[in-house]
TrEMBL record:
<dbReference type="InterPro" id="IPR015421">
    <property type="entry name" value="PyrdxlP-dep_Trfase_major"/>
</dbReference>
<dbReference type="InterPro" id="IPR015424">
    <property type="entry name" value="PyrdxlP-dep_Trfase"/>
</dbReference>
<dbReference type="InterPro" id="IPR015422">
    <property type="entry name" value="PyrdxlP-dep_Trfase_small"/>
</dbReference>
<dbReference type="Pfam" id="PF00155">
    <property type="entry name" value="Aminotran_1_2"/>
</dbReference>
<keyword id="KW-0032">Aminotransferase</keyword>
<keyword id="KW-0808">Transferase</keyword>
<protein>
    <recommendedName>
        <fullName>histidinol-phosphate transaminase</fullName>
        <ecNumber>2.6.1.9</ecNumber>
    </recommendedName>
</protein>
<dbReference type="GO" id="GO:0030170">
    <property type="term" value="F:pyridoxal phosphate binding"/>
</dbReference>
<keyword id="KW-0663">Pyridoxal phosphate</keyword>
<dbReference type="InterPro" id="IPR004839">
    <property type="entry name" value="Aminotransferase_I/II_large"/>
</dbReference>
<comment type="pathway">
    <text>Amino-acid biosynthesis; L-histidine biosynthesis; L-histidine from 5-phospho-alpha-D-ribose 1-diphosphate: step 7/9.</text>
</comment>
<dbReference type="GO" id="GO:0004400">
    <property type="term" value="F:histidinol-phosphate transaminase activity"/>
</dbReference>
<feature type="domain" description="Aminotransferase class I/classII large">
    <location>
        <begin position="14"/>
        <end position="92"/>
    </location>
</feature>
Length: 96
């Protein structure tokens, strides 16, 4: 059983303690930004060309890239409809 207040599920944390082992021989702190195998797999899944796929290092970066690509600072607005992921508002404010 969980005692109240110690489990936070808003950032995909698992409330369960799992056993795992780590082999540091295969760790790479800086993987490819656009890994070819991942791009090809996503493209095949979506039925598009690999050149039409962009991989991000998580939702935060993806949101930031979308705002930078489609919004002009000080001119465009972003509608935030709670409850939603908090990074939308943070990125919108960061990029004015």
């Amino acid at each position: 059983l969980f005692s109240g207040g110690q489990d936070w599920l808003n950032a995909n944390e698992s409330p369960f303690v799992g056993e795992y082992s780590l082999n540091s021989n295969k760790l790479n702190r800086y993987p490819d930004c656009q890994p070819k195998d991942v791009l090809q797999a996503y493209a095949a899944y979506a039925g598009v060309a690999p050149e039409q796929v962009l991989v991000s290092r998580g939702a935060d970066e993806g949101i930031e890239l979308l705002i930078r690509a489609f919004c002009d600072a000080g001119q465009d607005s972003i509608l935030i409809c709670p409850p939603t992921y908090g990074m939308y508002a943070i990125s919108a404010e960061t990029f004015n």
